[in-house]
Design the sequence.
């Protein structure tokens, strides 16, 4: 950021129905810069000769705090969170007009909220109206998200520590689900076990809605119904991870509901596993973002030929993209405060180079819907294997390796109750 003023609001509270609200979730950019988790707050940063961080937040209010609980209020917020100054949120527009004066550039999350876009431009107009007294309003507008996205892409040591813990708790949840699952249960009963494990470690919320998909449901990529019975002989795909201190884990495991893979299930599973291992090996500094995806695709293409799902050579399967009937998504995404985290995947039109401190998921899969060109014993098999990977100076660290992944590890885990 050159000289200027940046204004970053947190997220609004969102009504669910009547007087009930969704659990509050702060804005990730705001929290990344402030560590402040209350709603109705705005961070202002000023860069120039003097650097300043200023918080606007809810005032102390003994009456409201009886109903809604503790609020820091500006004085305690400034003291405990280390802001240079803090003011009541009700003074935002008036103070912002003062703070904007003579700043050349206004940075804000452009287009993220039409209300904030309009409000900030209105404050700028108010500053402009004072031009006769020699005050200048910012003449440049810049999207602060572009800068923050790049900063958030590289996780520092403290962030890595939190993500490691979020991953460990989520691995425990998957192990618990494997030990719990039996034919005849409902998907939501397994979901309850995941939530229990998250919450009992202090991770109050899943990072995204858990996918607990038995049998054919696993072939619906974003299945969140989680209300079907689990059948003996089917697989169960679970895509679930917790959010801890604002950071996400994102893990998928697929395992047999009765504890033992059938021959056909094992054949498909081993191919997806081999493709995932190839992709993880390709996730290292100096390789491009696309390298893990290409590595996974080559293994999957050969596997699909072996299973008679695709015809021809690996090259022709890749060329014609006939694999897309069974693998239609990419092999991962950045992971961080948001489960699909911020950061560009291409720079100047080229795939980005992986760098130490980046975290990504590696999640190839295979989803076989009934079709004329598919051997019947493979119908309705849906498998995905997803790990969270931190790029290190010389390779990578799989943050989620405690979740059983090989056929042997899974069958062993499922022998325990
Ligand atoms: N759970 C969302 C994803 O895997 O991308
Ligand atoms: Mn994912
Ligand atoms: Mn996932």
Sequence:
């Amino acid at each position: 950021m050159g000289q200027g003023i940046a204004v970053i609001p947190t997220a609004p509270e969102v009504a669910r129905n009547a007087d009930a609200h969704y659990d509050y979730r702060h804005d990730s950019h705001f929290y990344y810069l402030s560590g402040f988790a209350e709603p109705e707050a705005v961070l202002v940063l000023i860069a120039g000769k003097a650097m300043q961080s200023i918080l606007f937040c809810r005032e102390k209010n003994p009456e409201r705090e009886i109903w809604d609980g503790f609020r820091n209020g500006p004085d305690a917020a400034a003291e405990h969170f280390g802001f240079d100054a803090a003011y009541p949120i009700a003074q935002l527009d008036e103070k912002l007009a003062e703070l904007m004066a003579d700043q050349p550039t206004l940075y804000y999350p452009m287009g993220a909220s039409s209300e904030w876009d309009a409000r900030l431009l209105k404050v700028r107009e108010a500053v402009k109206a004072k031009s006769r007294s020699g005050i200048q309003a910012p003449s440049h507008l810049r999207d602060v998200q572009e800068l923050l996205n790049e900063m958030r892409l590289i996780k520092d040591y403290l962030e890595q520590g939190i993500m490691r813990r979020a991953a460990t708790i989520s691995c425990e949840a998957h192990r618990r689900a494997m030990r719990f699952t039996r034919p005849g249960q409902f998907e939501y009963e397994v979901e309850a076990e995941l939530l229990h494990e998250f919450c009992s470690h202090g991770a109050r919320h899943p990072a995204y809605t858990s996918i607990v998909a038995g049998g054919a449901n696993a072939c619906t990529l974003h299945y969140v119904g989680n209300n079907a019975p689990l059948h003996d002989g089917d697989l169960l795909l679970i895509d679930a991870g917790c959010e801890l201190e604002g950071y996400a884990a994102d893990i998928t495991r697929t395992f047999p509901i009765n504890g033992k893979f059938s021959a056909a299930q094992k054949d498909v599973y081993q191919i997806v596993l081999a493709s995932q291992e190839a992709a993880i090996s390709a996730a290292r500094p100096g390789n491009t973002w696309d390298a893990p995806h290409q590595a996974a695709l080559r293994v999957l293409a050969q596997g699909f030929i072996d299973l008679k799902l695709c015809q021809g050579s690996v090259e022709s399967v890749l060329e014609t993209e006939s694999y897309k009937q069974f693998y239609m998504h990419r092999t991962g995404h950045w992971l961080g405060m948001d489960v699909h985290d911020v950061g560009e995947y291409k720079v100047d039109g080229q795939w980005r180079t992986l760098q130490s401190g980046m975290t990504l998921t590696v999640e190839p899969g295979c989803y076989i819907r009934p079709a004329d060109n598919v051997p019947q014993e493979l119908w309705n098999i849906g498998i995905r294997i997803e790990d969270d990977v931190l790029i290190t100076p010389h390779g990578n660290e799989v943050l989620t390796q405690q979740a059983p992944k090989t056929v042997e590890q899974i069958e062993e885990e499922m022998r325990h109750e």
